[in-house]
Amino acid sequence: DAGVTQSPTHLIKTRGQQVTLRCSPKSGHDTVSWYQQALGQGPQFIFQYYEEEERQRGNFPDRFSGHQFPNYSSELNVNALLLGDSALYLCASSLVSEAHSGNTIYFGEGSWLTVV
Amino acid sequence: SQKIEQNSEALNIQEGKTATLTCNYTNYSPAYLQWYRQDPGRGPVFLLLIRENEKEKRKERLKVTFDTTLKQSLFHITASQPADSATYLCALEDSGGYQKVTFGTGTKLQVIP
Question: Do A42 and B99 touch (CB under 8 A)?
């Protein structure tokens, strides 16, 4: 049973460019959340997708957008990249029917984005 | 404003001793508090969840306490081993309809052989 998979694992972009990161949730999971983790910090919630809709959003600008596909996989898009967007981007999956029942949230290994 | 505070300084402990990590929060009314382990360059791994109406939870060598009056959780690793060396993240989940988790900055634990 594959866990959460993310791609690419590492990438380097130039300021002003756009990037797309991808996530496949754990088998059977229907909810995907994205987090940004800067060096030495805890993960910061970006947004969450369920049934192909953005359900919740953290304190991130509109340059950050996402999408969820019918197979529950998800993409994170960041436009007009800034140097400060350099971070580890984490995808987490869960099952909405088990929310608040103590179910486990599974994280992927992340995508390292460096903006130069 | 809402804050989740963990000791940002690394915790060094001798192998075999009990490691105790602290998580304090303000302006939150969490329904759940979670602890994760994160190794360098890897994603967080879920360890334990404790509900607001639970005082203590155990799993093997791990123990978590949750004091909603003090707004504090303590995370204990007994008989610590070098393999326990990692960053430990505290995370709060609110009681809203969606599973949004907010993380602290983490505490780095180093277990010295």
Answer: no
At residue A99, the pLDDT reads 58
* pLDDT tens, residue by residue, B51-110: 888 999 999 999 999 998 999 999 999 999 999 999 999 999 876 656 678 899 999 999
> Which residues of chain B make contact with A33, given a CB cutoff of 8 A?
99-101
Residues B77, B64 contacting (CB under 8 angstroms):
no
| Contact between residue B94 and residue A35 where contact means Cβ atoms under 8 Å apart | no
The SS3 call for residue B42 is: coil
What does the radius of gyration of chain A's CA atoms come to, in whole angstroms? 14
Cα B72 from Cα B112, distance rounded (Å)? 27
B102 CB near a chain A CB, below 8 Å?
Answer: yes
From residue A68, give the alpha-carbon distance in Å to each of B3, B17, B39, B67: 30, 46, 28, 37
